[in-house]
Amino acid sequence: MKTTIIGFPRIGEHRELKVATESYFRGDSTQEALVNKGKQLRRMHWNLLKDAGISLIPSNDFSFYDTTLDTAVLLNIIPKRFLDLQLSPLDTYFALARGYQGEAGDVTALPMKKWFNTNYHYLTPEFEESTTVKVVGTKIFDEYSEAKELGIETKPVILGPFTLLKLAAFKGTTEEEQLFAVLAAYKEIIATLDSLGAQWLQLDEPSLVKDLSDEDRALFLKIYHELTAGPRTVKLLLQTYFGDVRDIYADLLAVNVEGLGLDLVEGKKTLELIETFGFPQNKTLFAGVVNGKNIWRNDYRQTLEIIEKLPQEQLVLSTSCSLLHVPFSVEQEAFPKETAQHFAFAKEKLSELTELAAIVNQTADALINEPLIRNQQLFQATRAVENQQLASKIAGLSEADFQRHPAFEERSSVQKYTLELPELPTTTIGSFPQTKEVKATRAKFKKAAISEEAYQKYLESKIADCIAFQEEIGLDVLVHGEFERNDMVEYFGENLEGFLFSKNAWVQSYGTRCVKPPIIWGDVSRKRPITVAWSTFAQQLTTKPVKGMLTGPVTILNWSFPREDISIKESTLQIALAIQEEVLDLEAHGIKIIQIDEAALREKLPLRKSDWYQEYLDWAIPAFRLVHSKVAVETQIHTHMCYSEFADILSAIDQMDADVISFEASRSNLSLLDDLNAHHFKTAVGPGVYDIHSPRVPSVTELVTTIKTLLEKLPVEKLWINPDCGLKTRGEKETFASLENLTQAAAQVREALVYESVRE
Are 354 and 54 in contact (CB under 8 A)? Predict the structure, then answer.
């Protein structure tokens, strides 16, 4: 029995790719150095998979920023504004990802969205009327040849044409108008790989696990009928993940591909589909039986029970999705042995695949059952002790615990009177730049190189400077900057019972942005106040309101590695009760505005609409309400959400019953505003007026235009002015300039509103 994976982490064992890429961005290294680092990492990863015994090793899963972007660039799907810059191919690539501001011009980046139900972000390909789709890149071919020169036969991977079209944006053109050229380009890719001697080509089609309309099914079948026509020797693997393909499974069985990749972890109906409709003998089943998104050890006995029900003749064991979503290796951690044995990161999952394959193969090796015995002993042992008091508290929650009184309209009137904020109040999302100095000082404190008193004084000086800067430029609602926080989730987890933390378990979120998710090990409760001291210190420095800054329970859950021994609903309610204690503490200490970030609310939303409420929203939305349900009418509750498609869940977001919500709108050209109006959205909103994921500084004129556009869609009394996300990852120079321009723009628009009011 063979083994494979869908993809491997590309940032490197020690985030080498992040370091090299950011060095190139700063101008500290050359393009040649960056390219060589990429080649070095690919070689290391291919050899690692080969040594682990993986039968079919992927190539072209490596990327300097994003594989969806790689596909767009390969196929010349590059908007004209980027081509007009006349940059080098690599710098054009990075301009697409990050935007560009320099001598060649000033352009915003491609829209960035969440990759299905993960915390990974992809760049949205943009087709324009002038787009000429054709194969102009060589990356997929070069990397296949590169591995072959090392004596490693790989399975090239590329985003499939159906998913490419479903994820793309079309401006001045349509999906139908671009289809012929897209098909021709993919046919050329297949033909070129055929000529190079490739044995397999993996076409990733995760969009097949979503709800499919009749039109979607017809488009898919048309694409693959055309794509697979004609002679070829390279075998095609149609790979799906993140769910099951219930809407199209029967059709897939007849598609002219040699392999079909199915998810048996998140695919609730995958096994049922196979048992009901069968699986053709002329196809290879790539069975996703090892979880590619979580870090817990695979329960071999449960997995073997699934494998036994699958057709054995042509079966390849695989991960449920790319290992991009898990850290590199447990070997880099300092967990006690009794703790570490419960975890499997990317490298360890390779061993799980090969051990499962060996057990199924039933070789003559007398020790073959040792991994199975060891695995079952692990799962028979008790890992975490239940907090019975917490369990009783959750069991005793009633409907009243999830409702805030009075209603939104009455609260809004009271808060307007008590807070005395101007029209178009300005604020930020919370965090300020975490400079090298901030990170170095925190590291010194953790290593006991400086005292707690010295560290606290340092943080107080940073907060004081941050407050002074915000007052100087005229922001209306201030923040303390969050200099004490390493990460918006990790920081809270460190102050809650039930969490474990890694040293090097980094996972790519987008580009060079990596996160280190906490591990929810046991029951969660608050062991002490978390943010109260820093928020109250900041508030003492100013007469303007300072927001208390918290991370919401759903985001803490979604941006951690969750437990698998209890439901995510129960785990989220545990976190919600802990954060509720913090909210009430902040309020008791005089903090009048409290922001509870739910940046990742949409992230775990089931990909099928029929599952949205029963499986997720029916408990995720109440979990947020539980956090703030007991605050006074005068306390204004804010929340924030990151890059996602919100239009289809706006009614649920309104049910969160926050007073103000801020979210990304800059990269999506403020298209969400029409949806807000269509849903009669009651909550006050702060659509991000500029993109913080790009280093470019928006001008005052640009921001004035943006704010005026917002006012064409939203009433002035409901509109807040803010960046689209936290500023932690940005440099100080660009941040300070952007915020100063933001406040100047807001002031100009206010003056114009007053002038227009007087004229009327």
Answer: yes
User: How does DSSP assign 225-293, residue by residue?
Assistant: HHHT-S--SSEEEEE--SS--TTTHHHHTTSS-SEEEEESSS-TTHHHHHHHH---TTSEEEEEEE-SS
Which tokens is 574 given? 């545990």
Report, as an integer, the average pLDDT of 138-142: 98
**The domain at 2-268 falls in which architecture?**
Alpha-Beta Barrel (3.20)
Residues of the chain with CATH 3.20.20.210: 2-268, 407-759
**Backbone angle region of 474, left / alpha / beta, with phi > 0 → left and psi within -120 to 50 → alpha:** left
The CA–CA distances, whole Å, from 558 to 120, 346, 520, 663 equal 12, 19, 11, 18
Given a cut of 60, whether residue 363 has pLDDT beyond it is no
Q: How far is CA 28 from CA 34, 64, 697, 699, in A?
A: 11, 17, 22, 27
What is the rounded distance in angstroms from the CA atom of residue 355 to the CA atom of residue 359?
6
Summarised one tens digit per residue, pLDDT across range 553-572 is 999 999 999 999 999 999 99
Given the residues 325, 342, 480, 693, the one annotated as active site: 693
In the predicted model, is pLDDT for residue 364 greater than 50?
A: no
320-360 pLDDT per residue, tens: 999 999 999 999 999 999 999 999 999 999 999 999 999 99
**Is 679 among the residues known to form the active site?**
no
Alpha-carbon gap, residue 479 to 638, rounded angstroms: 13
Whole-angstrom distance, CA of residue 678 vs CA of residue 681: 8
Q: How many CA atoms lie less than 13 Å away from 704 in the CB half-sphere? A: 12
The pLDDT tens digits for 152-178 are 999 999 999 999 999 999 999 999 999
Q: Do 158 and 204 form a contact (C-beta atoms < 8 A)?
A: yes
Q: Tell me the CA distances in angstroms from 387 to 384, 496, 500, 564, one per residue in order.
A: 9, 13, 17, 17
The top-level CATH class assigned to 407-759 is alpha beta
Q: Quick check: 119 pLDDT over 80? A: yes
